[in-house]
Amino acid sequence: MLKLHTLKIIKQEPVAPGYQRLTLARGIAAQAGQFVQVRASETFDPFLRRPISVHDAAEDRLVLLYRTVGRGTALLAAKKAGETLDLLGPLGSSFPLTDRAQAVVVAGGIGAAPLYYLLRTLKRAGKQVSFFYGARTEAELLLREEYRALATNYSEATDDGSAGSRALVTDLAAPAIASLDATVYACGPSPMLKEVARLADYYGRSCFVSLEAQLACGVGACLGCVVPVRGQEKYRRVCVDGPVFAAGEVFFC
Amino acid sequence: MTVKIAGLSLANPVMPASGCFGYGEEYAPFFDLSRLGAVVVKGTTAEPCAGNPPPRLAETTGGMLNAIGLQNPGAAAAREKIVALQQWSVPVIVNVSGHSAAQYRAVIEVLDDLSALAAYEINISCPNVKAGGMAFGTDPAVVAALVRELRCATKKPLIIKLSPNVTDVTAIARAAAEGGADALSLINTLLGMAIDIERRRPVLANLTGGLSGPAIKPVALRMVWQVTSAVEIPVIGMGGITNARDAIEFLMAGASAVAIGAANFTNPLVCPETVEGIRSYLAENGFASVREIVGLAKKEWQK
Question: Among residues A217, B93, B113, B177, which one has the fewest Cβ atoms lying within 10 Å of its Cβ?
Answer without folding.
Answer: B113
